[in-house]
Design goal:
single chain; three-stranded antiparallel beta sheet
Length: 178
Amino acid sequence: MAGLKRRAARREPPSAAPDLRPGSPAVPTELPARRAYLPHVLSRLMNLLNLQLLKYLRMRKLTIGQFRVLQFIEQFDGATINEISADCVIEQSVVSRIVDQLEQRQLVNRKKNRSNARYVQVFMAAQGRTTIAELERAARKIAAHAASELSATEHAQLVSLLQRVFHKINEGIQTRLD
């Protein structure tokens, strides 16, 4: 941490560096550019949440990607690789490997779609349901703690705003790809 402070001091004069420590008396009116850059802020948040979640995932020998895929399948049992890929924002080839790994561990099952054999659907296995239920409890506790400083209204607004940003970005990606 001391090295980080020394590097930061060389880049910014001490008077310009805001005190962002928890409990600091003054909240800065302007954040340094990298701290106000939305991808950076979201990345830092996700990294911290994922680090906390990893403690639970390691006990189950799962990765963050495997957990995200299990979450989606639990919610949308019978989803296709394409649907999982689109929602989890993970490349199809990576989702296929993750599903292979989860299937080998008997957490999910693959079945060909009855009406169109080109599509493979992924279903949650009994062991997968047990695993995801335990991990979801831990994930919800972590998320609840992270948002504990927000009122119910602020929490709803934050989720709504982030969903709007996500849909706008996703819309832009689809537009460029078409």
